[in-house]
């Protein structure tokens, strides 16, 4: 392998929402080669982020720390998430605050939000809710000036929606949730990232605590709301009808989709497919949703 070949392999696979075992081996080997040969921290962050998405957090920590030691300012965001959520088994809010602050200083919006959230909750720092609200309001104004696909629109909009709901401005809150879900759905198409699915789930459930659910007009991600209890839904894709059912079990709600069986709603959204197409990739081509039972 040479650098040009490794870069070609990395480009080929980084745009795919999911990789099989052989593709994963080829992709990670190409990045490890590039790290070894170029010492470029961007490749370290890329590999760390890939392992984070796979929930291989020990490996994510390894490559984020490697990149941070090489002076990469964006690796601090990943380290912040690892320590904030205790991804390797230990939660350390002091380390999380340190790394999030470093990333925020480099203009990282997500880390700016997480620092604000730590003030809101009093994690490592004293509680300061006014500072939290001020930061989220400021972040929304700033992020509206960027069209970067990686910009954290949904992270900002969902938090501002909660603030507007608390302020009694429910119509504005609902609009923010709807915009946030649109951004998330587009991002999930390309990443399939579990964290984005989690945000989509609670944003959807909270949205329908504000507005009434319309059983005659809903889409794929509204199943997060419907599948909080047993029901059956049909929809069409390329003219063919498909059925998904939320089923009550002793371990909670499971989902059946054709011959596919999922232990819970999260597994359904992350793994359901038609042929080789993941539903979350073709979500905007699914239509005629109907509650049938």
Explain what you see:
- By secondary structure, the protein is an alpha+beta fold.
- It has a domain of 72 residues.
- The protein has 13 helices and 7 strands.
- The strands form 2 sheets. Strands 4-3-2-1-7 form a 5-stranded antiparallel sheet, covered by helices on one side.
- A hairpin with a 2-residue loop joins strand 1 and strand 2.
- Helix 4 crosses helix 5 and helix 10 packs antiparallel against helix 11.
- The termini are far apart.
- The mean pLDDT is 93.
Please tally the helical runs, counting DSSP H or I stretches of 4 or more residues: 13
User: How much helix is in the residues?
Assistant: 55-70%
The largest pleated sheet is described as: 5 strands, antiparallel
Pattern of helices and strands? HHHHHHHHHHHHEEEEHEEE
Taking all residues together, what is the mean pLDDT? 93
In whole angstroms, the N-to-C terminal distance is 56 Å
- Protein structure class: alpha+beta
Q: Uncertain spans, ≥5 residues at pLDDT below 50?
A: none
Proportion of beta-strand residues: 5-15%
Give a concise summary.
The chain is an alpha+beta fold. It has 13 helices and 7 strands.
How would the blueprint of this fold be written?
Layout lengths: L2 H12 L6 H18 L2 H13 L3 H13 L5 H10 L8 H13 L3 H13 L7 H15 L9 H14 L3 H22 L2 H14 L15 H4 L4 E7 L2 E10 L2 E6 L2 E3 L2 H7 L1 E2 L2 E2 L7 E6 L2
Antiparallel strand pairs: 1-2, 1-7, 2-3, 3-4, 5-6
């Amino acid at each position: 392998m040479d650098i040009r070949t490794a870069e070609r392999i990395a480009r080929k696979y980084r745009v795919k929402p999911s990789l099989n075992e052989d593709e994963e081996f080829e992709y990670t080997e190409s990045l490890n080669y590039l790290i070894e040969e170029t010492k470029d921290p961007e490749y370290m962050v890329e590999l760390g982020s890939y392992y984070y998405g796979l929930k291989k957090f020990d490996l994510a920590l390894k490559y984020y720390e490697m990149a941070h030691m090489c002076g990469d300012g964006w690796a601090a965001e990943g380290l912040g998430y690892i320590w904030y959520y205790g991804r390797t088994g230990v939660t350390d809010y002091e380390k999380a605050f340190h790394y999030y602050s470093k990333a925020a200083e480099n203009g990282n919006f997500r880390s700016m939000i997480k620092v604000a959230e730590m003030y809101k909750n009093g994690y490592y720092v004293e509680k300061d809710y006014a500072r939290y609200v001020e930061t989220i309001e400021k972040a929304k104004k700033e992020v509206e000036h960027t069209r970067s696909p990686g910009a954290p629109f949904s992270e900002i909009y969902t938090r501002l929606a909660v603030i507007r709901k608390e302020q009694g401005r429910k119509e504005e809150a609902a609009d923010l949730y709807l915009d946030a879900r649109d951004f998330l759905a587009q991002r999930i198409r390309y990443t399939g990232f579990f964290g984005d699915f989690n945000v989509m789930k609670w944003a959807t459930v909270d949205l329908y605590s504000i507005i009434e659910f319309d059983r005659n007009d809903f889409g794929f991600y509204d199943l997060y709301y419907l599948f909080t209890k047993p029901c059956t839904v049909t929809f069409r894709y390329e003219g063919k009808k498909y059925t998904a059912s939320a089923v009550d079990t002793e371990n909670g709600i499971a989902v059946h989709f054709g011959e596919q069986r999922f232990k819970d709603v999260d597994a359904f959204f992350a793994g359901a497919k038609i042929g080789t197409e993941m539903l979350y990739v073709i979500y905007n081509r699914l239509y005629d949703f109907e509650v049938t039972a």
